[in-house]
Amino acid sequence: MTTDLPTPLRALAVGAHPDDVEFGCGGTLAKWAAAGCEISHLVCTDGSKGSWDPADDPATLVADRQVEQRAASVALGGTGSVVFLGWRDGELESGLRQRAELCHWIRRLRPDVVLGHDPWKRYRLHPDHHHAGLLVVEGIVAARDPHFFPEQAEAPHRPSHLLLWEADAPDHVEDIGTGLEAKLAALLEHRSQYRSTMDIDDPASTEQADRFRAKIRERAAEAGAVDGVAYGERFKLLSKL
Ligand SMILES: [Zn+2]
């Protein structure tokens, strides 16, 4: 188990849905942002299925979730881009068109560290998380090599490290002692997800929000305990990309 990469100049986190980045690596991003790193978000799908209420209008939900995602990025200290690829929620594919988009954004934003879903996580049910993970890995391969998508205007770019969250075989911990409060604040910007993801039925209930905060703190404590830090986020670390 390794701990704490050097703070990158630029980091790009790639999630399947609005809120995945905050759950997966929000503490790490907040810590780095506070130390001067430019952090960017890329969200693959439009999040249009992220509601348990059949009466919800998907177009309104999509717009609301973009606002929430931008607010969450600000809560983490984000000063980079927040990119929405807008593929339909639940139907993300890891094909050539999507890979070209990832390649374009990696070349354009030039992150030192890329973070994303682990595509090799066993028994994962949600297809979007699987495909978003594949897109991160395959997008990096394309972005670093000039013969992939040569029609793109941006120069090739090779990140230094890739961190995969919810990893099948985690081998790296980031100490998020200084980023945990910002992670909690960023998660709570995703108000449309209170009911379905955070078990908060009443947005006005401080008790329910506190219960959610306690759950996230507990998870971070468990993740940190394997490497002796108070609060952590665990990843699979890939270097020499
Ligand atoms: Zn998700």
- What count of helical segments does DSSP give? 7
The total strand number stands at 8
Order of helices and strands: EEHEHEHEHEEHHHE
Query: What is the helical fraction, as a range of percent?
Result: 40-55%
Instruction: Give me the Rg, rounded.
Output: 17 Å
Bound molecules: zinc ion
Straight-line distance between termini: 19 Å
What is the makeup of the main sheet? 8 strands, mixed
**Strand order within the widest sheet?**
1-7-8-6-5-2-3-4
Low-confidence stretches: none
Beta content comes to: 15-25%
- Mean pLDDT, to the nearest integer, reads 96
The backbone outline, from C-alpha atoms, is: globular
Classification by helices and strands: alpha/beta
Q: What are the salient characteristics of this protein?
A:
241 residues, 7 helices, alpha/beta, 8-stranded mixed β-sheet, binds zinc ion, globular, 41% helix
Describe the 3D structure.
The chain has 241 residues and is an alpha/beta fold. It is 41% helix and 18% strand. It has seven helices and eight strands. It has helices spanning 20-34, 58-75, 96-109, 127-144, 180-187, 194-198, 206-225; strands spanning 2-3, 10-15, 38-45, 82-87, 113-117, 161-165, 172-175, 232-239. Helix 2 packs antiparallel against helix 5 (180-187). The longest helix has 20 residues, at 206-225. It starts with a strand and ends with a strand. The structure holds zinc ion. Zinc ion (ZN) is lined by residues 16-17, 20, 129.
